[in-house]
Amino acid sequence: MSTSKKIRILLLITVPVIAGAIAVANTTGIKKWLDRQPETSSVAEEATNKKDAAQVALMNEMLSWLKPFDTTNTSYYLNGLLTALDKTDSANAMIDVAYTVCKNGKQFYLQMGKTETINNDEHYFFVDHAAQKMMLAKAKEVVQSPGLPVNELYDYIHSEGFVFTKETGNNRLSTIIMQNPNHISYKELSVQYDSVSRQVKKIFMRQADVTDPMNADKEKWITLVVKDWNDDPDASQYLSIHKFVQKKQDEWVIAPAYHEYELINQ
User: Fold this and answer.
1) pLDDT at res. 175
2) In this predicted structure, what is the pLDDT of residue 7?
């Protein structure tokens, strides 16, 4: 497994939330991890003896805050703001774009800016409000990825030079940071949370450019600000396509409210 894939597995814990923006799903990498042969007892014992207890505690705390965003979580609602900056292409940056996700088993709703996507048991539907276009197709299969092998993460992270730190301000917000400014791929992952409400408020990722990894002017920054979270949402209000299109005489037609839109039926 390559260095970038090892670190990517940790970062993939946030993929269900921002997959539409960065498209870094890596099921193959996870399978390779799970198929890896166990270490011999002597090697495992040696690695255990070298673990830094404080670093392990911070890693576990970060993972506990990120657990609701794991791929094994099949039901949640999130509303927030997404910022995605590619420093080599500032003209196409996304700044505080409206971002909503509602997931119910293998069904999901995603709003990102002026686009909405619905994948329910029967249909896959996409609408671009800026272009006034809609697309309707058969439901797409969503593969539920396995959870992460948390107990094995520390050895990988430590070997790549990442260090965990924690910042606590005068307010109720605290931030756990995993970073290595000299890493050739992923530079930083941080999670900010509210210690009173016990909710994640912000997730930040900083990634290097593969062609020039030490150049800060070519980095990619992704920030998700979480405004609202619900572990048990009413998914029905998000998963229906009928406010956009309606079926009449076995033919799908655009709902009156969107009569100026174009429908592509696949």
Assistant:
1) 96
2) 42
Q: What is the dihedral of CA 20, 24, 25, 31, to 10 degrees?
A: -170
Burial class (CB in 10 A: 0-12, 13-18, 19+), 139: middle
Determine how many CB atoms are found less than 10 A away from the CB of residue 151: 8
Residues 6+ away with beta carbon under 8 Å from 95: 83, 85
Instruction: Of 113-117, 168-172, 258-262, give the lowest mean pLDDT range.
Output: 168-172
| H or E element, residue 43 | helix 41-49
Using the 8-state DSSP alphabet, how is residue 10 labeled?
A: H
How many Å apart are CA 29 and CA 240, to the nearest integer? Answer: 33
Kindly tell me if the per-residue pLDDT of 130 is higher than 60.
yes
| Extents of the domains making up the chain | 3-105+144-233
The 8-class DSSP code of residue 64 comes to H
Cβ proximity of 187 and 37 under 8 Å:
no
- Mean pLDDT, range 80-90, rounded to an integer: 90
Q: How far apart are the first and last CA of the chain?
A: 38
pTM over 0.85: no
Domain 3-105+144-233: which CATH number of 1.10.3470, 2.50.20, 2.30.30, 2.40.30: 2.50.20
Residue 262 token pair: 């174009």
Given a cut of 90, whether residue 15 has pLDDT beyond it is no
**To which H or E segment does residue 34 belong?**
helix 27-34
Return d(Cα 242, Cα 240) in angstroms, integer.
6
